[in-house]
Amino acid sequence: MLDLSFNNLDGVMHEGHLSRLAMLEHLILSDNSIAITLSPTWVPPFSLNWIDLPSCQLGPKFPMWLRWQTPVMSLDISNTSINDMVPDWFWIATSSVDYLNIRNNQITGVLPSTMEFMRAEVMDFSSNQLGGPIPKLPINLTDLDLSRNNLVGPLPLDFGAPGLRTLVLYNNMISGAIPSSLCRLRELRLLDLSRNNLNGSITDCLVNKSITDMTDLGIVNLSLRNNNLSGEFPSLLQKCPQLIFLDLGHNQFVGTLPAWIGEKLSSLSFLRLRSNMFYGHIPVELTKLVNLRYLDLAYNNISGSIPRSISNFTGMTQTRGNSDNLQNALTFERADGEGLVSVYDENFTILTKGQERLYTGEIIYMVNLDLSCNSITGEIPAELGALVALKNLNLSWNNFSRKIPENIGALIQVESLDLSHNDLSGEIPSSLSALTSLSRLNLSYNNLGGKIPTGNQLQTLEDQASIYIGNPGLCGPPLLRNCPQPEPIPGENHGDASDDLVSFLLAMSSGFVMGLWVVFCTFLFKRRWRAVWYSLCDSLYDWVYVHVAITWTSLRGKING
User: Fold this and answer.
1) pLDDT tens-digit readout, 259-311
2) Share of the chain above pLDDT 70, in %
3) How far apart are the C-alpha atoms of 556 and 554, rounded to whole Å?
4) Of 45, 78, 111, which closes a domain?
5) Is 279 exposed, middle or buried (0-12, 13-18, 19+ CB in 10 A)?
6) How many CB atoms lie under 10 A from the CB of residue 474?
7) What subcellular locations does the record give (predicted)?
8) Lower CB count within 10 Å: N or C terminus of the chain?
9) From CA 169, how far away is CA 346, in angstroms rounded?
C-alpha cells in the first residue's frame, strides 16, 4: 500500500517512481496536487485493486495505464482534469468495481449498453459531458449520480436496480414521462429529476393499480422542479409518509391543494410549489404540518385568506428549532470503501431580499414563507406574528387589505419583509423598528398613510425612498413630503384664554380680600399695634404735607418773581 493522502503534496510522479512497486495493491494519493504523467504505452508492473486519486492531475487525456488494472475494486479519479472521451476499454476494466467515481471532469461519450452487467454498487459520474440515454442499471447498484451531464431520451422502463437508494439526475436533457418502474424502487430515499424536460402526469406512475393497493414508499427527498410536468397534485404522494423534502416548483401542475397533505405528509419540512397553476384556498389542514420550515406557494392562482391556524407551523415558531429533520433529507451518505461520505450537494436558488440567492447546505437554516404573486385576500392575520423564526416573509402582489398587524415587530429574526403591491391601509406599525435583523423592507404600492416610523434598523436600510413609494398618504423622512403640523382649533383656544383670565382675576381678588382681612383682624385684637399704626400714619401725613407746602410756596415765588 502507498498512502500519501491529505498531505498537500505537489510535483510530478512518473514511471520511475512506480516501476519497482510490483507488489503494490493500494495507491492512495487523494487530495494532493500531484501530476501523474505516465507514458500511454507504459505497462505497470503491479495490479491494483484500490485506486484513490481524487484531485490529482491525470488529464487531459484518459490515463491509459488504468486499462491494465484488473480486477480493480474501488476507483476514484474525480476532479483530475480529464478532458477526453471515455474509451471502450474503461468499461471493461471497471466491470468488477464496487465503487466508481469519475465526477467533476470533462469526460464525453455515452454510457455503455452493457452497464447492467457491471458489479458496481456506487457510481458517481456527475459534472461531466456524458450524453446519450440512460441504460439499464447494474443489479447491485445502490447509489447513482449522473447530474450535470448532457443525457437525453426517456428514463428506462426497467431501471434494473431494485436496491437503488439514491438516484440523482438533475441538470440533464431527459425527456418523456416518469415511468411506472420508479414505483418499484422500494428502497429509494432520494430522487432528484429536476431541471430536465420531463412531461406528463406523475399519476402515470400508478398504471392500472389503485392507490389503495400500493404499499408505502420510503422516499424522503423528491425534487421534480423545472420540468414540464402537469396534472393535479400527485395522489401518489399519499404513499410517501416519510417525505421530508418536496419540490414541485416551476412545472404546470393545476387544481387545488388537497387537504390530505397535512395528514399523509406529516413529516414535511420543505414544500415548494411555486410557479405552477394551483388555485383555490390554502387548506386549513395544511397548517397541521408542524415540522414545516419552508413553504413557497408563490406564482400560482391561490385565493381566499391565510388560515388563522398558521401559527400551528411549529417549525416556524421556534427560533432555535431542530433542523435535523430537513438535514437528514438533504445529506445522504454512502460507503466509499473507507467510510461514509456525503453524496448530495445540489444548489437551491431562493428569492429573498429582492434578489435570487444561491443556497447549498445552509438551506436547512432558511425559514421561509413565500405566498407572493397570488390572489389572496383579507387581512394579514395577527397570528403571523407567532412565526418568530421566519427569515424571509414575502406576501407581495396579492390583495391583502386593512392594517399591517401591530405585532409584526415580533418577527425578530426576519431579514427580508415584502408586503408591496397590496391594498394595505392605516399607519405603519412602530414595532417595525424593533426588527434588528431586517436588511430589506418593501412596503411600496399600498394605501398606507401617516408618519413613517424611525429608529433602529429602519434608518440603515438601503434605497429607503423606494421602500415607501406608491403610498401617497405617507409623510416624513426619508420621503420629501413633510408631515402637516397639528392646527389649533379656534373655539378651544379662546376658551383656554378666557379660562386663564378668570383664574387670574379670582386668584388676585382672593389674595386682596385675604390680606385685608388679616390686617383688619390684627388691628382689632392688638390695641398697641393699632395706636402705633395710627401714629405712624399721622407722622407720615404731616411730613408729606409740610414738604408739599414748602415746594408749592417756592414754585409760586419763582413764577411771580
Assistant:
1) 999 999 999 999 999 999 999 999 999 999 999 999 999 999 999 999 999 99
2) 81
3) 6
4) 78
5) middle
6) 22
7) Cell membrane
8) C
9) 11
Distance CA 423, CA 53 (A): 61
Question: Rg (Cα) of the chain, in Å, rounded?
Answer: 42
Q: How many domains does the chain have?
A: 2
Beta-bridged to residue 392, according to DSSP, are 368, 416
- Write out the residue range of the structural domain in which residue 266 sits: 256-482
Which of 444, 463, 482 is at the close of a domain?
A: 482
Flag whether 549 is in a domain: no
* CB half-sphere exposure, 287, CA atoms < 13 A: 15
Q: Distance between CA 488 and CA 168 in Å, rounded?
A: 72
Residue, of 225 and 546, whose pLDDT is higher: 225
- Residue reference for cell 399519476: 203
Distance from CA of residue 383 to its chain's centroid? Answer: 20
Residue 291 belongs to some domain of the structure: yes
- 103 in any annotated domain: no
Confidence of residue 498 (pLDDT cuts 50, 70, 90): low
Q: What is the pTM of this model?
A: 0.83
Q: What long-range pairs does 434-441 form, CB within 8 A, spacing at least 24?
A: 434/409, 435/408, 435/409, 435/411, 436/412, 437/391, 437/412, 437/413, 438/414, 439/353, 439/415, 440/353, 440/354, 440/415, 440/416, 441/417, 441/467
CATH number at residue 415: 3.80.10.10
pLDDT tier for residue 403 given thresholds of 50, 70 and 90: very high
Q: Tell me the C-alpha distance between 118 and 111, whole Å.
A: 12
Question: Would you say residue 401 lies in a domain?
Answer: yes
Give the 3-state secondary structure of residue 539.
helix
The span from the CA of 544 to the CA of 87, in Å, is 139
pLDDT value at residue 319:
74
Coil, strand or helix: which one is 492?
Answer: helix
The confidence score (pLDDT) of residue 44 equals 87
